[in-house]
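Same chain as my last thread, 190 residues:
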Amino acid sequence: MRYFETETYAEACQLAADMIMEQIQEKPESVLGLATGSTPIGIYDIIAKAVAEGELDVSKLTTFNLDEYVNLPVTDPNSYLYFMKENLFDRIGLSAEAYNIPNGNAADIEAECVRYEEAIKAAGGIDLQLLGLGLNGHIAFNEPGTPLDAATHQVELTESTRVANSRFFASMDEVPTHAVTMGLKTICEA
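reply #2:
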């Protein structure tokens, strides 16, 4: 593991964006693991600017997102698909065939988790994974104590995670109680 320390959020975003862009430039058909939340927005802004200015070609890129809420319509501005389309995918012209997000509205969530794992394997695995850490240290929606050998699975969101995410919803009652998340095993295989 390499550790980098920056003075500002802008510097951290530039450093992370540079690493991601270098990965894409070295391997245009890269498979990226992506995160949602407020932290990566600056990173996505830098990448979108590079694509718009013709400095980065993402035409062969494939992405897999870490997680998605269960039973939240994808048209809801709080769904992670909506977030990613607004903050990255639409801005860089990434086709729906190139990005992957767990289907939190699947009729069979367990089958969806298996399907998502199989899609990651079929893509050759994740070359580079972007992560954020939750206030309580969760990675994706894997709360502290989640087994390290967990693959993609459904989780019940802890109260602290729901409270932290409530700032995006009109009321606490609207915050989903469950999500589908990439597991720590899958994340660590990147």
